[in-house]
Amino acid sequence: MISQFFILSSKGDPLIYKDFRGDSGGRDVAELFYRKLTGLPGDESPVVMHHDDRHFIHIRHSGLYLVATTSENISPFSLLELLSRLATLLGDYCGSLSEGTISRNVALVYELLDEVLDYGYVQTTSMEMLRNFIQTEAVVSKPFSLFDLSSVGLFGAETQQSKVAPSTAASRPVLASRSDQSQKNEVFLDVVERLSVLIASNGSLLKVDVQGEIRLKSFLPSGSEMRIGLTEEFCVGKSELRGYGPGIRVDEVSFHSSVLLEEFESHRILRLQPPQGELTVMRYQLSDDLPSPLPFRLFPSVQWDRGSGSQALNVRLHLPLPRGVVSLSQELSGPEQKAELGEGALRWDLPRVQGGSQLSGLFQMDVPGLPGPPGQGHSTTAPLGLGPASLSFELPRHTCSGLQVRFLRLAFRPCGSTSPHKWVRHLSHSDAYVIRI
Amino acid sequence: MVAAPPAEGAARLRPAERRGRAPGGRRPGGARRSALPRGGGGGGGARLGAVGPEEAGLPQGAGRGLSGRVAARRRSDGGPGREGAAPWGGEAGSGAEGLGVAGAVSGRSEPACGPQEGTAGAGAGLAGPWSLGCGPGEAEAGPTSRLGALRRPTFASPRFPRQGWEEPAGTAPGRETMPYLGSEDVVKELKKALCNPHVQADRLRYRNVIQRVIRMPKLDQWGQAEVLNFLLRYQPRSEEELFDILNLLDSFLKSSSPGVVMGATKLFLILAKKFPHVQTDVLVQVKGPLLAACSSESRELCFAALCHVRQILHSLPGHFSSHYKKFFCSYSEPHYIKLQKVEVLCELVNDENVQQVLEELRGYCTDVSADFAQAAIFAIGGIARTYTDQCVQILTELLGLRQEHITTVVVQTFRDLVWLCPQCTEAVCQALPGCEENIQDSEGKQALIWLLGVHGERIPNAPYVLEDFVENVKSETFPAVKMELLTALLRLFLCRPAECQDMLGRLLHYCIEEEKDMAVRDRGLFYYRLLLAGIDEVKRILCSPKSDPSLGLLEDQAERPVNSWASDFNTLVPVYGKARWAAISKYQGAEHRGPELPNTASFASSGPLIPEEHKETVQEPDSGALMLVPNCQLTAEYFEKTWFSLKVAHQQVFPWKGAVHPDTLQMALQVVNIQTIAMSRAGAHPWKAYLSAQDDTGCLFLTELLLEPENSEMQISVKQNEPRTETLNGFISVLETVLGTIGDIKS
């Protein structure tokens, strides 16, 4: 049961404020919260804070603070879950969640909050139930400018039926506005993996952890059934073997409760009738035993070893340096790259790395007062304080576990002539890719 | 439990088995399921082996036939989870009163439960993942050949389907598409019922309510979390009932929503407070969801999960040891998560993973963030209590970095370590020389000076280091450092007098003549006079035996029982940390403190289970001679008219301190069916309240409360429309109880 709910921008401006119970102070709690948040001592966590008899619990979601206050000792898990569910709902209704969309859709947000929560108790968060009650339509800033599509249209003639949807395509309100009946029926399916890797200084793998999710964002009318076919070699658990190859193995899988699994065992097909909006269809975890080689290697150099058809985006190398570095000279393999020194660490940004390429960066640092290497002569051990290096990156069209979506079939046939568009993305990105030096 | 004669139990068992096979064999999907690692199949005995675990027959009440079983199955299909159909092939004792919950067949312990079943005669199938196989008393009830099954080694079997997920998990009732609003009436009714003291007093009604709650299938995750919260307040009458509830709620533990899983865990921990093995099994089951939450993308969820992991580790230190890699930090994580993870790593360390964990922690020690680096060093210090040599080596290497923020923390760690693990003194003494150059802050200096003073005889240059401090004592800003210096120098003087005599004299002179800080000056004077008393006296006082540090260590590591924090699980307490929570709740004042206040607000909260006896005592006053009826609504006009027409039947004063919280009082009075007609605002002078109540014979009690702050007492005037003394006295005692309770809480 929550007393108040508010949304703050990243700068602390209150965007939305709703008091459900009227049992505690006025609007200034939002300010109070921000003051507390910014003035928090370093070793305390900001997730739960208290003031007088009130607890503030918040999540940060796309730069916004979603805060709930309560005066009871309630379950933190439920409340955090509720807040993230609210964030998803708001995203579904307003297109995407950001300061701009929230302030454009204030009325809608309040209406939504009214329906979701009553006197601080959750009524429902299901899209199905809510859509019957929500009357306000979302205000979308710029529906689709041609500029967004330009990157797609450049190479081929088929701008309309392109193979690739712009990355912003999924960020629009889920509910079709009543005026615009020609709304496209679209389904977006993302296979997203987060990779956390720890590589020892001798190149051996210490830890590999892949957290994968299949996310679905459906703009189809609810109740339309769809089937998602996964790679047939997909196996769960250590013992199971399928197919002839090495198989694609994950340790644990959990499915959303609306997924029907009759065909999963035999054909790796998930059947579901998703509600509109975003939904995490499946989560899986894989640790320690990765079927494919790791995407990056770094001994003295960062080396990229995937096939040449792929590329990595926004690669950033983060290398903590010993204290007292006074100067840094660099020698990089490409002119457009640059490395910066800041906050006691080196940052080397690579906006785009072509698959199969090898990049080198030679950094020379002046560290006055650093004790020489222990022992005599040349030592290969890195000075203390150097490293570990962390990489962050995105790998589109690649999953580390090897899991692929074979097909996405819809049983649903719209009355109009257009068949629904189905977009499937595969993406890996780094959670923590750490290489000890 | 009543111990059943084995013969009877066996007799009942056999027909049940025969019946059990037929429907089980027909069930689709049975073949697949039988391949599941439900390991306990062995518990079913050889006879059942061929049938497959879940098809094993269920012991039933003798009078039930096949039709009853089929009906039960149909119900359980639509009931808590489709998945429920297979593991819970249950028979419901559908009697009007009996709990009638479907006893679940898990294919393990059901034959063993048969005998108990028979004697209990409740008609409820009792089996499934949670059963009573714990006490030796029960074990004797069954035939000896089945003891193994009864004792439930079953939990140890990989019943937890997350290890592999062959089962369609997440088919628990939490379907988001289920209409929650549709069952709103039920929820409302439940809330009302559960908050109503009369329902709580009436055990039968309460029990029925509970059953209805448990069976509610069409709840979404929020509803489930609420229900689990309400159930915390129910205390099962018997062990069978308890395990029935556990079995029914088992599917909640597999929910895909962390809130529901944690709610269920808490409920299980509290219900099974007398069964430590059940608690351990629950915690094993919840390991998967907790770890998943710990690596969740949502930082906040991750943090909450980490806090709960720490809580569990306090009781079960080895619980997460094999998953230590999950708690390695990544550089992009926020500070508060890193700190929690370091704490967790520090607590789960064991012989197998100590090397890897220390390696990882060493990496953190050179982190860019000084705070995090220091936390990591302290963590290594914590591990050093068990794995001294490796840790001291790492810490010594860190000194080589010659960085202030690292050196100071390392020296502090050394100080604590030398105190707790005297065996590492030698290594520490060798590492110390040279590090005084890199220490600037008060804490670090104190630690270094203490070490030099206590173990100065083993550090060759100790007097010279201290001499530097004495030279610079005038510019020293921290009094604590000066005090430490005095003590250390005096100690060192005792073992190395020749080198220290001169500077000790200088230091004492400075402290007594020039020092501004009183404490330092007094300490200096004290030592001076002590020295006057002779060197033997100084030795006797400074070198007298110390307290035994190992005792403190033992106390520190003592495992706390699960029950000590079970009621805090899935609340804000672990998230804040116990110490901070204590400070907060003290600050928050009384009304959130506990269950002793019988108002509805605190009932609705997730407070701990209200002991049954307590409720009885609260109810006692009006369940005796006097019975106040609820919902006696008087209009203000009628009250006023009656008030003026009657004369005061009773008047008394009640000691009262401070102000009144009208809301609290009103709520408390409502619980005992006294209605508030009018009440002054909080803090008004004088403060007044008018109350009314009616008993079952229609006699009206009109009351005026008058509080004048000067007198620090509350004046109570009661008027009655029928002069009857015994009910009047009853009423007054009720009123006094309420006022007393409120007054106690307030003060």
List keywords for this structure.
heterodimer, A: 437 residues, mainly beta, 9-stranded mixed sheet, 5-stranded antiparallel sheet, 7 helices, 27 strands, 38% strand, globular, B: 747 residues, mainly alpha, 37 helices, 5 strands, disordered N terminus
- Helix proportion range of chain B: 40-55%
- The N- to C-terminal Cα distance of chain B equals 45 Å
* Rg of chain A, Cα atoms, Å: 25 Å
Count of β-strands of chain B: 5
User: What is the tally of helical segments of chain A?
Assistant: 7
What is the SS-derived class of chain B? mainly alpha
What percentage of residues of chain A falls in helices of 4 or more residues? 10-25%
Mean of pLDDT of chain A: 74
Main beta sheet of chain B, described? 5 strands, antiparallel
Number of helices of chain B: 37
Task: Name the biggest interface.
Answer: A-B, 87 and 88 residues
Number of strands of chain A: 27
- Approximately what portion of the residues of chain B adopt beta-strand conformation? 5-15%
Mean pLDDT of chain B: 69
**What Rg of chain B is obtained from the alpha carbons, in whole angstroms?**
34 Å
Oligomer state equals heterodimer
| Poorly predicted spans of chain A | 145-162, 300-309, 372-381
Task: Give a summary of the structure in a few sentences.
Chain A is mostly beta strands. Chain A has a nine-stranded mixed sheet, covered by helices on one side. A five-stranded antiparallel sheet of chain A has the order 2-1-5-4-3, sandwiched between helices. A four-stranded antiparallel sheet of chain A has the order 14-15-10-26.
Structure characterization notes:
The complex is a heterodimer of chains A (437) and B (747). With 437 residues, chain A is mainly beta. In chain A, 15% of the residues lie in helices and 38% in strands. In chain A, the strands form 7 sheets. A 9-stranded mixed sheet of chain A has the order 13-16-9-8-27-25-19-22-21, with helices on one face. A 5-stranded antiparallel sheet of chain A has the order 2-1-5-4-3, sandwiched between helices. Chain B is mainly α and 747 residues long. Chain B is built from 37 helices and 5 strands. Chains A and B meet through β4, α2, β7, β8 and β9 of A and α11, α13, α15, α16 and α17 of B.
